[in-house]
């Protein structure tokens, strides 16, 4: 089998791949609770609070299992409907 | 680094908020399947005429995913939304009349229901048409299954595994975006794809 090679991103962004990779977190599913858990890193309090508010109502560093299917998307939408 | 033709997948999909969840999922699935997601949004701010940008991206993409699920009547205008079928037509035209490289193109058509197209776009019968029922999980599975037939040398995870990876990616996206001084919800296509690729790099299969 061919070794997997992740392809580069298309589109303009001021974010470098190095920065995007550095900022990425390892996420795993807790075997007991079934919830996703983000592997902790050096997070500032501000970022941690913001992430907690989005990923869980209780402010833990976890997300509900059903929080993805209904999300409204993260990309800024074009004003044109297409 | 310019996107390579054989790896590029043109996403011909709606850009409205109701479709955003599916769009995000499709971009993730394409990259997790070791391809490159291409969209008209990647050049949205430049001065080039929109149709020319789209034609350029189609020319640069061997694969196309065309979602016709929103090709209905717009509630505000009462008119049909033709852009997705139009761009599908460009793609099929390139497959038919292009040079040898362009004739190698392959496309997948997505809709809510598998045979709904017969009522409004029956001429596309014979294309690979799959249903996603407006569910990211089903859209990811359809894209994964289709792309895996075009990259048989790579043993890709199944649709369920890729959706699980997508959920894990989404769980940390707000933190990842904040770390690069971006707010979730204001990400451009380029920002989002960069974050996807960054996460995939750190979370391999």
Question: What structural keywords apply?
Answer:
heterodimer; A: 82 residues; alpha+beta; 3 strands; extended; B: 205 residues; alpha/beta; Rossmann fold; 5-stranded parallel β-sheet; 7 helices; 11% strand
Tell me what the structure shows.
The complex is a heterodimer of chains A (82) and B (205). Chain A is α+β, with helices and mostly antiparallel strands. Chain A has a domain at 20-64. Chain A has helices at residues 17-23, 45-55, and strands spanning 27-29, 36-38, 62-63. Chain A has a 3-stranded antiparallel sheet with strand order 1-2-3, covered by helices on one side. In chain A, a hairpin with a 6-residue loop joins β1 and β2. The longest helix of chain A is centred in the middle third of the chain and has 11 residues, at 45-55. Chain B has a single domain (5-157), classed as Rossmann fold (3-Layer(aba) Sandwich). Chain B contains 7 helices and 5 strands, in the order βαβαβααββααα. Helix content of chain B is 44%, strand content 11%. In chain B, α1 (20-32) runs parallel beside α5, α1 (20-32) crosses α7 (189-202) and α2 (50-59) packs across α3 (83-97). The model of chain B has no long low-confidence stretch (mean pLDDT 92). By secondary structure, chain B is α/β, with parallel strands linked by helices. In chain B, α1 links the parallel β1 and β2.
Question: Secondary structure elements and their pairing?
Answer:
The complex is a heterodimer of chains A (82) and B (205).
Chain A: H1 17-23, E1 27-29, E2 36-38, H2 45-55, E3 62-63
Antiparallel strand pairs in A: 1-2, 2-3
Chain B: E1 8-12, H1 20-32, E2 36-38, H2 50-59, E3 63-67, H3 83-97, H4 100-103, E4 106-111, E5 128-131, H5 136-148, H6 159-179, H7 189-202
Parallel strand pairs in B: 1-2, 1-3, 3-4, 4-5
